[in-house]
Each structure stands twice: as structure tokens, then as C-alpha cells.
Amino acid sequence: QVQLVESGGGLVQAGGSLRLSCAASGRIISINAMGWYRQAPGKQRELVAGITSGGSTNYAESVKGRFTISRDNAKNTVYLQMNSLKPEDTAVYYCNARIIDGSSWSDYAYWGRGAQVTVSS
């Protein structure tokens, strides 16, 4: 069974930084695209940043120049470095990964349980 576990959330003042990590574990054959989404209270979940298996990245306009996504394929881990945080970045951040697992040998989108990020003004 494949699991994604996020870590690194917390409370930070505006202008500060946080680094989120998400580690995938279980019977993993390969991991394709990975990404971070967020959901603020009363809003829909939105894509924050994505990274392909080859390292190509894309970002939401609202975080470009402030957030950096990266991955360590040897550790099955994706990171999100968040700098110059703003109160509007407050949300639950979810890790997502398309994984081919050793049970089904199918490509499936897995989600983590979420990490709370709160930015105070």
C-alpha cells in the first residue's frame, strides 16, 4: 500500500519561510509527476507547484518567485521551499503524486493527508 506523508508545516510570521516535505512509501514501481496543492477555508483546492519525473516545474502565478519545488528521486520525496510568505498563503497543503505501485501496476494519483501552514500578519 502506497502512502504519502507530509511534514514541515506550522505557524510563521509574514515574510518568513517554511519547507514542506512529502515522502512516498510502500510498493512503489515508479513515481511520475509530483506536486503540491493547497486549500484555504471556503476555497477550492488549487495547484501550487508541480514537478515531472524529469525535473520540469510549473507554478501558480501567485507563488512564482517565492516558492520552489524540488524532488529527490532516490528518496521518493518532494519538497516545497516557501519564502516571503504572506497571510494569503495560509492553507492546508497537500502532496500529490502519480505512482505506479507494485500491486496494481497502474498509474494512480495518491494524496497526502495535508499539512497546515499558517502565516500571521
Radius of gyration equals 14 Å
Q: Provide mean pLDDT, rounded.
A: 96
Tally of separate helices = 0
The H-and-E topology, N to C, reads as: EEEEEEEEEEE
Give the structural class: mainly beta
The coarse overall form would be elongated
Question: Helix coverage percent of residues?
Answer: under 10%
Structure summary, number of beta strands? 11
Strand content: over 45%
Q: Largest sheet, if any? A: 7 strands, mixed
Distance between the termini: 40 Å
Low-confidence stretches: none
Write the SSE topology.
Layout: E1 3-7, E2 10-13, E3 18-25, E4 28-39, E5 46-51, E6 57-59, E7 67-72, E8 77-82, E9 91-101, E10 107-111, E11 115-120
Parallel strand pairs: 2-11
Antiparallel strand pairs: 1-3, 3-8, 4-5, 4-9, 5-6, 7-8, 9-10, 9-11
Could you characterize what this model shows?
- This protein has 121 residues and is mainly beta.
- The protein has no helices and eleven strands.
- Strands 2, 4, 5, 6, 9, 10 and 11 form a seven-stranded mixed sheet that branches. A four-stranded antiparallel sheet has the order 1-3-8-7, with no helix packed on it.
- Strand 7 and strand 8 form a beta hairpin.
- The radius of gyration is 14 Å and the shape is elongated.
- The mean pLDDT is 96.
